[in-house]
Write a structure and sequence with these properties.
The structure holds two protein chains of two kinds. By secondary structure, chain A is mainly alpha-helical. Chain A is 59% helix and 5% strand. Chain A has one domain. Chain A has a two-stranded antiparallel sheet with strand order 1-2. By secondary structure, chain B is of the alpha+beta class. Chain B contains three helices and four strands. In chain B, the strands form two sheets. A two-stranded antiparallel ribbon of chain B has the order 1-2. A two-stranded antiparallel sheet of chain B has the order 3-4. Classes of the chains: A mainly alpha, B alpha+beta. Chains A and B meet through helix 2 and helix 5 of A and helix 1, strand 1, helix 2, strand 2 and helix 3 of B.
Chain lengths: 133, 145
């Protein structure tokens, strides 16, 4: 019964990647809050995590198409990026709502730290197993 | 690591907002600088913001969403306002022309004040964002301890 990092770390590795990417996208939205014509972007956490779960549950599946991507690849390809529907569109075509973006950014930071804590506990578990405590 | 990208993005936004604040300061400082001809008169200045495109292929206005994924902000340039100047009849002013007119800048003080508030708020938001990114990066570095 060998220790397998992939199994031990579970889904938290992927959630951390997604949270990190989302923080970057939300920061771009906030940075462009005053840029005329800028369209706010976001990514769909649910669909990305479902994709990652499917890959984890069927590890022996073969990749037969370039569209079958790991979480890291999907995040890098930009195909997972969506446009936000503006609540109060402004006259210069900018769809960034600073309040919404700021709240989402704060929430995302919290979620990131939660994932990190889970990952931390997994490492603690591995360490405990290795030391036989 | 995308957390490092946040520092670049927030940094570019902070520098863009400081350029904006700089133009506001310049406009407000010169709001009452009279001149004797239209050409010499100070005109209100405003920065033009545009997103930095990460993979700017071609014109950057294509329909491909991948090429529109924004990075930070850049200031494309500073434009001078075309609004009409304020012409006043002040024959006693040493700067008056032959007809007794002096020209005042087309700076709208109310507009500049709101611009100033908006710029400083946006700056604050970016500082907060950087703070969060810093915390996130520190937590990641401490992982596994």
């Amino acid at each position: 019964m060998a220790i397998n990092f992939d199994k031990a770390l579970g889904i938290y590795e992927d959630t951390l990647l997604i949270r990190e990417k989302r923080a970057e996208i939300l920061s771009q939205n906030l940075a462009n809050a005053d840029t005329p014509g800028y369209k706010a972007r976001d990514l769909d956490f649910k669909s990305l995590i479902n994709q990652a779960l499917e890959m984890k549950s069927a590890p022996n599946m073969n990749r037969t198409s370039a569209g079958h991507m790991s979480t890291a690849e999907a995040l890098a390809s930009d195909s997972s990026l969506l446009y936000r529907t503006p609540m109060q569109p402004s006259i210069d075509g900018n769809t960034v709502d600073t309040d919404i973006e700021m709240a989402q950014f704060a929430k995302n930071t919290m979620d990131f730290q939660a994932s990190l804590t889970f990952l931390q506990s997994r490492f603690r578990g591995l360490k405990g197993a290795l030391k036989g405590e | 690591m995308s957390i490092n990208a946040i520092f670049d993005v927030a940094g570019s936004a902070m520098s863009a907002q400081s350029v904006r604040l700089n133009t506001v300061a310049s406009n407000l400082a010169n709001a009452n600088s009279a001149a004797s001809s239209i050409d010499e008169t100070y005109r209100a200045r405003h920065p033009v913001f545009a997103p930095i495109l990460q993979n700017a292929m071609g014109d950057g206005i294509s329909d491909d969403p991948a090429s529109q994924a924004g990075g930070g902000v850049q200031v494309l340039g500073i434009v001078e306002s075309d609004a009409p100047l304020d012409q006043r009849y002040e024959p006693n002013n040493p700067l008056a022309d032959e007809d007794g007119y002096v020209y005042y800048p087309n700076v709208n003080v109310v507009e500049e004040m709101t611009d100033m508030i908006s710029a400083s708020r946006s700056f604050q938001i970016n500082v907060q964002m950087m703070e969060s990114a810093k915390t996130m990066a520190q937590k990641v570095l401490a992982l596994g301890n």
